[in-house]
Design goal:
This protein has about 160 residues and is mainly alpha-helical.
């Protein structure tokens, strides 16, 4: 889905679908982090990068390009505005951590045991951050999306489209 495309389903269902994919792949990523602890073999870095591209990065772009503008366009009030601000800061932090992780993973096959364990801890922290972030969205943002679905869709249909 392009960053500013209307979802084929309603926004809450689309968010839940994407969160389920992130959670499923987070388990795979956590297993990869455990591999760093247990072996000096190479990880499938391509699979990890694809996970972040197709799940985390695309999900963040969906929220930043569709969900957040729609929510803010419906005058949600200070609590939801503060939540959106907090979630955006988390998106930036997650994206930076992912970038640093990619750099570290490229050298993982040359790392000694202590470096691999440190990298494994970083992977685990990232997985925890992703799951906490998704839970926050599910617990705090999804109820707003569900309650205001019609206003959100109306906003998305009338806003100017990016080219």
């Amino acid at each position: 889905m392009a960053n500013d495309e209307l979802p084929s389903q309603d926004l809450p269902e689309e968010m839940l679908r994407q969160h389920a994919a992130v959670s499923e792949w987070a388990q795979v990523l956590e297993a990869a982090g455990q591999l760093l602890d247990q072996t000096s073999g190479e990880l499938d870095q391509g699979a990890i990068e694809r996970f972040f591209k197709h799940n985390v990065h695309d999900h963040i772009q969906f929220e930043e390009g569709v969900v957040f503008p729609a929510v803010l366009g419906t005058d949600p009030g200070p609590a939801i505005e503060a939540l959106i601000h907090e979630l955006r800061k988390e998106h930036i932090a997650i994206s930076r951590t992912v970038g640093a992780l990619f750099v570290a993973l490229r050298g993982a096959h040359r790392a000694d045991e202590a470096q691999r364990r440190a990298l494994s801890r970083e992977v685990k922290r990232l997985v925890e951050a992703l799951l906490l972030h998704a839970a926050k969205e599910d617990d705090q943002l999804l109820p707003y999306l569900t309650e205001h679905q019609q206003a959100l869709v109306a906003y998305l249909r009338t806003r100017p489209r990016r080219r």
